[in-house]
Amino acid sequence: MKQMEVTDELLYQYMPIADEMDLDALEAEIADEEIVLSKKFERRMKRLMWKEEHKWVAGFGKFMAKVAVVLLCVLGVSLAVTMSVDAYRSKFFQTVQEIWEDSVVHTYDIGEEGQEFVPHEPSYIPEGYEEVRRIETDRTLNIEYQKDYTYLYWDQYEITDGTWNILDNYKEQVIAEIDGGYIIINLYDKDIVRAYYEKEQYIYVVSAENVSVEEVIFIFESIN
Amino acid sequence: MIFLLAIETEEDQQKIEILYKQYHRLMYKIAYEVLHNRGDVEDALHDSFIKVAKNMQNIGDPDSKETRNFLAVITKNTALDVYRKKKRRWNREANFKEVYDSSAPRTYMKSSIDGDAQFLVQAIRNLPDKYRLPLSLKYTNQYSLKEISEMLNISETNVKQRIFRAKKMLEEEIKRLMNEE
Which of B79, B111, B129, B161 could link B44 by a cystine bridge, Cβ 3.0 to 4.6 Å? Predict the structure, then answer.
């Protein structure tokens, strides 16, 4: 009786051929077929592709959660400053922003460890948005809002030791003052906005599409 | 230490759109062969693209045979998952086994391969999906056992067992085909 031993070598050689034959046969079958997809499916796929195209908006929050930041806060300091963490360790939060030609370096250092994380979220969200997802950890809060096919993200992070450097290619930047602090609002192409606000031991970030600067400011002003 | 915030290239972000336009019809057909219901097929298709998005780093040239095969395997596996969920809901044990474990021959096309290799190719094409999918990911797309286990949502041990069992089934099928001739 004839037989054959099936080895890895044979499979590496002939498996692709068998797969290709099957897929070619299927493609030949559908060549003249009309495949009609529902409007609901097309909306779902459009939403998925938007998410993929704007992955950084959602991914930024997750990235921030992983990056350790060292906070040095010196009020009124000049732009070109070199500091060491040891020299400025204290009980107060200190922030230094070094503005380089195409990036902003935020360096953070906290003096006290082990403070309890208290979540804060905005009481104002632009009309039509609804909360669709919420992730809370012992140092972060991330909320995703959705209106039709557009998304708005709210992120709160507790500042810990570390350094983070953002390469920013915004087309316009607005700085607004609220409650004794500053909101940095960066405006990008395709009506995308990303804004940062630091208060006490937290950083708050809003990432959104088609939301005005005024509404971003309202969002931060409504933090509970 | 300074960390850079990596923003992905526009090319990567648009790749899913390219893959959708190029392969959604083929993927629809593959899912339909399993599910025979447009609503379920669209669910499977949507879930497949979510998996594709999660595995974008494993996808190279959208036009390559490996990419086409990868999408086909993901779609088939996802369709079978949808079928399994429906089976649990409708309690259709017999029908499910028929789809997933069947050794009934697939669409037959005469192979242009000469010699004994034609029996191997036909035996592969006759293999049930449960064993064919991990084999395809390993020997056509050359993924590791760990990667295959993540893509098919089964344990690595299960992947090894199915590949081992698949080889034995192929040898039995080749013996049958050779002796039929």
Answer: B79
Contact B136, B69 (CB under 8 A): yes
Low-confidence ranges of chain B (pLDDT < 50): 1-8, 92-98, 102-110
Tell me which chain B residues have a C-beta less than 8 angstroms from the C-beta of A52.
Answer: 13, 16-17, 53
Domain that holds residue B91: 12-100
Task: List pLDDT tens digits, range A24-34.
Answer: 999 998 887 88
CB spacing of B29 vs A5 below 8 angstroms: no
pLDDT confidence tier of residue A3, bands split at 50, 70 and 90: confident
Measured between CB atoms, which of A23, A48, A54 is closest to B46? Answer: A48
Please indicate, yes or no, whether residues B19 and B71 belong to a single structural domain of this protein: yes
Report whether B41 contacts B24 (CB < 8 A). no
Residue B18 contacts A where some CB pair is shorter than 8 Å:
no
Q: If DSSP codes are grouped into helix, strand and coil, which group holds residue A203?
A: strand
* Any domain includes B35: yes
pLDDT at A131 over 60: yes
What is residue B26's predicted lDDT score, i.e. its pLDDT? 95
Residue B74 at interface with chain A, using a CB cutoff of 8 Å: no
**Domains delineated in chain A:** 43-221 (3.30.200.100)
B131 vs A71, B51, B153, B159, B160, CA distance in Å? 54, 20, 14, 9, 10
Same domain for B95 and B123, yes or no, is no
Q: Does A19 touch chain B (CB under 8 A)?
A: yes
B118 touches chain A (CB under 8 A): no
Determine the average pLDDT of the residues in A54-62.
53
What tokens were used for A179?
Answer: 């409650």
| Whole-number pLDDT of residue B13 | 59
- Burial profile B96-132: b = 16 or more Cβ within 10 angstroms, e = fewer: beebeeeeeebeeeebebeeeebbbbbbbbbbbbbbb
Alpha-helical regions (H) of B61-155: 65-90, 93-100, 117-126, 129-139, 145-152
Cβ atoms of residues A200 and A93 within 8 Å? yes
